[in-house]
Every structure is written in structure tokens, then in C-alpha cells.
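Model it.
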Amino acid sequence: MNGKSLKVESGQYAIIDREWKNNDRIEIEFEMIARVIDGPQGSAPGSENFQAVTWGPIVLARDENIDPTFNQPTKIKENKRGVVKVTKTTPTRSDARMEFIVPTTKGNIRMVDYASVNCWEDSHVCTWLPLIKE
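Modeled.
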């Protein structure tokens, strides 16, 4: 804040209790790597059979407009820490902000940032990816 670092704890809210002044400035840095999130065990029947992918704080999604197999089961390739080696690429659609090539056990898929998904024109999206039965 204002050029000085504040101590923050991962997974917690950072509380800044102060009287704000004109020109106060906050800068936030995120670790921008892709990670797999496994479906939460027991939250719903079968929820453990899904994965999601994030890039830093951004949720990625499969968009039917660029991926006709958007809802087909897949398995994201990840290392032991859940990190995925994605490749950021030029978006297929001109109105998309970001697009990534994401490795799976059966080849690559394309995913976009969730905010760029174009489901306004009767198309579909998938953020929780069904796991392939291996």
C-alpha cells in the first residue's frame, strides 16, 4: 500500500483499517500459474468426478464456441502440486480476453477466462470438467 508491503495470509481477507486519503494506492500481485481444483468430496453425489482449472485468481472455462467437445470427459495433466503447464495463446474469438492451451491425458484443449465465455447466443460453457474414466 502506497509503495509498502503489507503482511497477508493466504486464504484470508486482508483488512486495511485506516482513514483513506486522496491518491492512496493499493497494488496486488498474484502468482499467475494454472492449478487444478478437484471437485469437493461429498458436497454432492459424484462431485469428486470433476476438475476445474484456475490461472491465478481467474477461473478458466471450456466455451462451446471454440470447443465443440466442451462437455466431454477429460483429465487435466498436472504435477504433484496440482500445477498445470498451460500456454497462453492468442484468443480464437476477437471478444475473448484470454485463451489457454491446456494439456490433458488425451491431447490439448482450449480454455478461456470465465468472463470471456460467450454463452449469450444459445451456446454453452463448462467450468467443472467431467473426469474421464480411466
